[in-house]
Amino acid sequence: MARLLWLLRHGEAEPHDARPDAERRLTPRGERQSRDAGAALARLGVELAAAYASPRVRALDTARLACESLGCEPEVVDTLSGGWDADGARELLARHDDGEAILVVGHEPDLSQAVLDLAGGRIDLKKGGAAAVRVEGHGAELFALLRPKETEALSAP
Predict the structure, then answer these.
(1) What's this model's pTM, rounded to 2 decimal places?
(2) What are the structural domains, with CATH classification, of the chain?
(3) For residue 104, what pLDDT is reported?
């Protein structure tokens, strides 16, 4: 049986010159995107075994806001700050049983590169967007790609 890897790119953040990169915060729009993503996944019936986040403020805040609707607390994984890859994804998935789903909140280009390396598909993961990859053994397939407009629509009551 497969494990499910949900990837969420952090929401819109302050400009690069606002503060040191690791400390950049979400904008109000980024906060909405983060809440919408969590609500959308919850409406889709996603049940998470765990959530993992980059320690960078914008990603960790995205994870916390998304997790409000998903009933979990994110665990910080330092490698998600930069240089995270398909091997990192497999390591996180290996912590969980078959049939379980995890959420990873991080940055580009790492997230889309992991999708390419796992499933062979190129994606354009927008800020606040989500993708899902079903991983089974050495194989994987991309089975969902949600742009922020779609997570917003799905999150509406």
Answers:
(1) 0.97
(2) 3-155 (3.40.50.1240)
(3) 98
